[in-house]
Amino acid sequence: MKEKWWKPWLLLSPSLTAVFLLLVVPVCFVVVYSFWLRSPVGQDIPAFQFGNYAKFFADFFYPSILISTIRVALETVFLCLLMGYIPAYFFYKTESPFKPALMILVMLPFWISFIIRTLSWVNILGDSGLINHMLIKLGLISEPFAMLYNEGAVIMGLLQYLLPFMILNIYVSLDGIDKSLVEAAKSLGSTEWQAFREVTLPLSLPGVSAGCLLVFVLTCGTYLPPMILGGPGNEMIANLIFKRVIGTLDWPFGSAISSILLLLLVMIVYTYNRYMGISQIFKALSKE
Question: What does the alpha-carbon distance between residue 3 and residue 6 come to, in Å, rounded to a whole number?
Fold first, then answer.
């Protein structure tokens, strides 16, 4: 048996090689670039210094965008949880023959391009969009409401993108609960609400926390909804990175911002894994 210890690693070698080349190596390049210098003529000079990190914290403009990103991410997590638990619980409880079709509707957004889904909100929330058009036609308003290019529009785009992740994570957790436990609680005198509060809700918390973690991390790293639906004051940290790397070609400073965001997310994921574990996330992803 000891002579065959290498066989599992041999089978894993193609996927491990792909992960190393496509994930680990690019991240290492970004971290290395974050220590380089950018000359006045725009040339990147290899170096090892912390000037790019000092530049980020020297001007509160940059940390304020990071703080704003975290705030928007927390708001998105809260709204996704509020809107996602009820349909997930419905899927867990229902015996309807239409349950598979309803589950497909939840996963339907994954089949449509993220860019198209985000741009569709322009036709819904714009001055000449569907909502304003209907309100004007009904005589409820005389001038269109300004519903685009603000934080509310950004959060709407994020909800459309991330809500299915929350629903699927919670549903996977609920689906693993033995329904006989709820029936046992009821047989001991618990009401429907008490059985949910004392049995179902606590057992579903791993899925809730996994969904919250996924939504938070994905929100912090997305840039399309703020870029398309947000205004000048609704930038998120990913938009700042995009502008520095693509707009001004300032790779060292953009890499430093990326490294700061990466470090923050690694700390959050490490804290979650320490107290909750990440196995629930992989269970949820395997169901998608």
Answer: 8
In the chain, the number of structural domains is 1
At 130, list the tokens.
């569907």
Please name the helix (run of DSSP H) or strand (run of DSSP E) that holds residue 44, with its range, or none.
strand 44-45
Is residue 208 assigned to a domain? yes
Which residue matches tokens 């991240």? Answer: 27
Residues in the chain: 288
DSSP 45: E
Tokens at residue 142, please? 């005389």
Q: What is the largest CA-CA distance in the chain?
A: 80
Residue whose tokens read 């690694």: 266
Is there a domain that residue 48 lies in? no
Cα–Cα dist 235/62, whole Å? 11
Summarised one tens digit per residue, pLDDT across range 183-242 is 888 888 888 888 888 888 888 888 898 899 999 999 999 989 999 998 888 889 999 999
Measure the CA–CA gap between 133 and 129, rounded to whole angstroms. Answer: 6
Q: Do residues 35 and 49 lie in contact, with contact meaning Cβ atoms separated by under 8 Å?
A: yes
Residue 99 half-sphere exposure toward CB, CA atoms < 13 A? 12
